[in-house]
């Protein structure tokens, strides 16, 4: 099922009036992270703020719907954003790391994998990662799985 098909099914089954949604896959390990969402373990994500600026892309906001895709661009589930805040990388807290549900759920694990991931993404955009870089922290709830 593709994103549009899943969205249409969700709207029909839940009498949702909202017509806008995003569709995207988690950057590092799309299949593994989507599975964590389906299992109720992953309820948060983080992204590099400078990349939103570079792409002139709007930031996520509370109430946004997203169709989560796997590595084959197939729709896996739908989430709804419940909270968005921006902090420097060095100020991301352990409670957010736990909501991301990756590894052992610790802040130390989160920092290790996100330094690697953000460094790669920033380099691809011709920018440098540093620990003062603003990070968009997003929390969400799973609202639909087929």
UniProtKB/TrEMBL annotation:
Domain ASCH: 24-144
Domain of life: Bacteria
One Pfam family it belongs to: ASCH
InterPro entries assigned to the protein according to its UniProt record, in alphabetical order: ASCH_domain, DUF984, PUA-like_sf
Protein name: ASCH domain-containing protein
